[in-house]
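Pipeline run #58 for the internal structure catalog. This entry was flagged by the ingest filter as a single-chain record with no existing model, so it goes straight to prediction. Upstream metadata was stripped on purpose; only the residue string is passed forward. Reviewer on rotation: M.T. Logging verbosity set to normal.
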Amino acid sequence: MTPNSPLVTVLLPAYNAAPYMKEAVDSVLAQTFKDFELLVINDGSTDGTGEILRSYTDERVWLVEQENMGLVRTLNKGIELAKGKYIARFDADDVCYPDRLEVQMKFFQEHPDYIIVASEADYMDEDGNFVFKYTFSHYEDEEIRASGLDSCPFIHSSVTVLRQALIDAGGYNDKAITFEDHLLWKNIAAFGKMKVQKLSLIKVRLNPSSATIDERWRGKEFVELKERSIKNGDVSDEDFKTLVHILKSQDFTEYKKAAYHSMLGKKYLWNQHKPRLARKHLREAIKHMPKKPEPYLLYLLSYLPGGLIEAIYHRGNRD
């Protein structure tokens, strides 16, 4: 490896991620695969993120600091700056397993006609405790394409992708607020084959400030707008105005907190069969978003016998 020509650029945007920043960076630097640069873009953080990042002297760490530009513009800047042939996405509150890059680059070496590879993921709570393993319905290129990519086919921070394919697909669309990655995967499919590997290569941290909101919580208008945009491969100007209005009308902070606790409540109930812990989080979800019916329903279900809860879960997945 030479510093100016790494095979892989690990692209890590960071905004106010001080509590998790060191663990994330250290997990990248501990990779068994060595031919990479770590491009960290500090997007105007106001906590201790910058100080943590500036403390690294490893020559593989390339720190770019800027005024806040937002996630999409930061990612597109990272694509432009990256020196690697491949770009491995990663988030500032997640953790890479040591063989993440080695496994993914071995796949590319053996399958040069592929442009993108992703993996399953182990989800953890904000304290790093394992909650559940995320698996997919579609792993092979043919399956992913047959699905129409109607649902997001990859976990964003598990993806490694050919940089040229990102450029050819036009990068991230700054009008696709909250679903910029899904729209990109839909558009990038025209440029090569895709794969999800059946193993976890990352740990994704759920926390109240960054938890992905269940799109059903945003309402029917949002869901229909997103579906239309994914189908068309773009967000129309009219839909963009509507999207901005929808997001501004929602209390984003409260939605994030409610989504975090609702997801933990659901997973502790369904996946780990821990009803008391599930109820603790469901009460928090109700407190932050009392008009959402799902936490109430899950709370009631948590008092059923374990065998019946499991039967309901498997019936719901089958249907």
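catalog note: The radius of gyration is 20 Å.
catalog note: The mean pLDDT is 92.
status: ready for reviewer M.T.
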